[in-house]
## 1
Amino acid sequence: MIRKNFVYVEDISQYDGKEVSIAGWVYNKRSSGKIWFLLLRDGTGIIQCVVSKKDVPEEVFELEKTLTQESSVIVKGLVHADHRAPGGYELWVRHIEPVHIAQEYPITPKEHGVDFLMDHRHLWLRSTKQHAILRVRHAVVRAIRDFFDNNGFTLIDSPIFTPSACEGTTTLFETDYFGGKAYLTQSGQLYVEAAAMAFGKVYCFGPTFRAEKSKTRRHLTEFWMVEPEVAYADLDDNMDLAEEFLEYVVQRVIREKEKELQVLERDLTMLEKVKRPFPRITYDEAVEILKKNQVAFEYGDDFGGTDETVISSAFDKPVMVHRYPAEVKAFYMKRDPQDPSKALCVDVLAPEGYGEVIGGGQREDDYDTLLQRIREHGLPEDAFQWYLDLRRYGSVPHSGFGLGIERTVAWICGLKHIRETIPFPRTIYRLYP
Ligand code: 4AD
Ligand code: MG
């Protein structure tokens, strides 16, 4: 019992025929003479409260005139099962105690532009759609944690302040660090590599930062990423893990969050198909798909958002694209011994145009080769001495990947843009609220 005096709307079925108090906010109200209806929102659900002239004191009945949208109230009444009521129950009101009368609420049922809503994000979170999205996000996070926890992975939190880049120097956020320089982490990968040598299989899960100057529907400057890393695992093991993991997360979330996905009017047909095995194709095969679809594409380039959409449209499940040209990938990627121009990497592209949700691969485990790559990429050698140590002391083949939470939530919820998948999004144009 979290609060001794109030029950939650989501638990209301346990109280049929009983008198309860619910503490919440006025979502909406409507009147019809001797009776008025109050839609009461308490964060766990919405219940219809029936206020009848014959059941309540005069001053309570008159509250219909003063209670504005989002005023906070405590409502006492009798729980009554009624299949016509939204949610199957209504509350026959005996008393209403206003807690605070809200000023004129800026978000009304009329259409507002996205910028207006984003400026009021702190209030927008109260609306049904945003509520549903963030409950799905929570379910995604829980499924992710359960998957790794139940498979014997150890959680290793990686630092936010870092001395160097992991995913390229062009998207680094620099900050003053007691007169020196520090960068906000782009990925916890390098640290979970160290941890994998200590614990065998590990994951980190936290916020990551990229100074993305482009304004796309797939990019945030602050996003959450989960990154597993496994010692003695090669690229194939990594792909096996990625597909088992993604199937688990998607299937569990669509089961657990059926109600929320209904609110979002998400068609679940494609999500139900997210089951192993996923198709695995090489970069070269992906380029062939682009050619077949008459997409102008330069062999050797990385895929852009539109390219990914075309490639993934050829399949009705997530597709794993492996072995990209090493030049377009990060310094730590191991090269394919069969073809050293290719990296032993994999991107998982979600169907329905959602693009890359997972990026990962096998890591360079040879000391000399890694040092050479660090130099080729113009990275500061000093800052990487600890990372090179992992190749000095018991180096082994190892692999891992990163899944972006917001892209995954956007895909599962069927949203065009990822900005609504995080409570307070950060983009090149937005630091408020
Ligand atoms: O492909 P990325 O850059 O890979 C890494 O960071 C590796 N170090 C991960 C690893 O192997 N441990 O990013 C991984 C995922 C992408 O597939 C995407 O889902 C997400 O992170 N992502 C972003 N999400 C939102 N906004 C951005 N700016 C993102 N950049 C990457
Ligand atoms: Mg990537």
## 2
Amino acid sequence: MASLNQKDLLGIAQLSVEEINLILDTAEALRQVADRPIKKVPTLRGKTVINLFFEPSTRTRSSFELAERRLSADILNFAVSTSSVSKGETLLDTARNLESMAPDVIVVRHSSAGAPHMLGRVCRSSIINAGDGMHEHPTQALLDALTIRQVKGRLEGLKIAIIGDIAHSRVARSDTILFHKAGSQVWVCGPPTLIPWDFDKLGARITGHIEEAIESADVIMMLRVQHERQNEAFFPSTREYYNFYGLTRERMRMARKDTIVMHPGPINRGVEIDSDVADAPYSVILDQVANGVAARMAVLYLLSGNAGLKPRKLAR
Ligand code: CP
């Protein structure tokens, strides 16, 4: 049985290229479960998965749950709002109490960067990071890579432009690390106030001009402005943001004919992307969502026997 040989999936930074390819190949194989009349395989029968989401989610939460059901796992969807978290119980105590019920995997989304890493150190269960603050969203990067590989046949040598609120985006970080490891040429673009200038250390080229990012790009990945993570104004107005950084049909005329458009969602139509573009034939946004189930099935499968392993030392 193929395995990732590590207890947790905390970030893309900790994965080698070989491990990324193993996950993508496994996801490709598991994708066909969705086309069967009975969308279920017995792979995780007898395993228990807890979904612990401290932040809202549509795509990640639903696709983890579908992935777990399609693999025949037993599932507990922990309802944070009606739990004792509202009485002041800490994340650590919550996790320790849930852990004592012997789950094999805990999927966690939290607003604090590093929350899944802390659980990884104290829990015997495998921890999967479903998004931690502004840090990483590793399964999103895996499903994005899977989608690009399906359409373009490879990641190596592609120009991938990530455009928008880079500073507050965990997707931008995980995508940049993965695409750079896979040999893509990554460009990040946005208002200077929304680009951490150390992104070049992750292997990205930085530009403030959307035209430069779009020119000859194979892939354009648009990102939402994350107002919920901002406590100051990073640009004068939404209208001005749209004028400088919105992906419009006019701007798409500057792109190559075979350029694809992606977005991790949720979309703010008319802010970072026009409806004409989001719904165009070159948009693969809903393919990303479909691939989210397969990518998460692959991660669950490859980690499912690893509870109890020593946590892997994290890459800096
Ligand atoms: N892409 C993503 O993480 O979407 P959700 O917040 O809906 O899970």
